[in-house]
Amino acid sequence: MQDKHMLMIPGPTPVPESVLLAMAKHPIGHRSGDFSQIIGEITENLKWLHQTQNDVLMLTTSGTGAMEAGIINFLSAGDRVLVGNNGKFGERWGKISRAFGLEVEEITAEWGKPLDPEAFKTKLEADTDKSIKAVIITHSETSTGVLNDLQTINSYVKAHGEALIMVDAVTSLGAVNVPMDEWGLDMVASGSQKGYMIPPGLGFVAVGPKAWKAYETATLPKFYLDLGAYKKATDKSSSPFTPPVNLMYGLQVALEMMKAEGLEAMFTRHQRLTQATRAAVKGLGLSPFAADEVASYAVTAVMPSTVEAEAIRSTMKKEFDIALAGGQDHLKGKIFRIGHLGFVSERDVLTAIAALEATLQKLGHQGATSGAGIAAASQVFKS
């Protein structure tokens, strides 16, 4: 049926109707007083979302662009950095760092497993000459559905004293608690098509005072992604370059929706959606790829053993017009991923699980009693 497409992937995520309608408005001049007021309101609400009194800057880019901006604004060629790599995105930050001439040491874990905070502690404590300039961490590793222990790793970075903590919070911001000021995070990057509930096109970089101090001596080349220019403009409720006006209309409404729900309620909702999805997957005789105690609140990865992952995805799309995400790199064709991030409700999860069960039956999966997935999810939702 036309116009019944349902996104159950970790990004882009579903967009509320009120946000879509806001984006349909006629654009206004981005240098006008009216638009300046919008930027000012958005900036204050972004600070609320990040739980910070420091700067939160908007860039016309993706989450990858936001992370690149963080790396090039606060570091110099030859700087030694530790990069956590337990999935596609941790791997990406290592590649970006090398592209800009940084001296990269990776702390790795098998895909589907969390990073070991003690490995960071060992490296940081051994660095008596304070040559490590930054630790770069993916909080929620979207490729595998793992939530890394940012708080503990950050505590070791703080004990080091010199290194910055740079955080990819692309699929954790808005889903799980990331209290920037309380934890003393130096740089937090995110992207609009995730927990923000708007389409792709905006990246966000939150910057703490220690990172700004590093900015003063950082020498990597930058122009369009020079965060100093964004801070100067944002302080005047403006933008250094032409912003995506209509996306920002949508962001204004989405942030209002998030504030109305409240931080704790948002985090609780994502936790319940995660628990229900994982319970349902198990009820259907499948196994989540990551362990319960390290589960991402954004996405649940599943490695089926009796049915091909791509057959599940293609049947879900063809029969029910529901999009699930696939695996990446060596996990391509081996896992599928169910997104439950942003504008997702209990009804969405129940719908996706019912369709998944019908798909599994159609493909000959024999691992579950009829209705077991919905029953397991419902048990979580009623508690």
TrEMBL record:
Substrate binds at R337. GO terms for molecular function: alanine-glyoxylate transaminase activity; L-serine-glyoxylate transaminase activity; L-serine-pyruvate transaminase activity. Keywords: Aminotransferase, Pyridoxal phosphate, Transferase. InterPro entries: Aminotrans_V_dom (IPR000192), Aminotrans_V_PyrdxlP_BS (IPR020578), PyrdxlP-dep_Trfase (IPR015424), PyrdxlP-dep_Trfase_major (IPR015421), PyrdxlP-dep_Trfase_small (IPR015422), SP_NH2Trfase/AEP_transaminase (IPR024169). Its EC number is 2.6.1.45. The keyword tRNA-binding does not apply. This is Serine--glyoxylate transaminase.
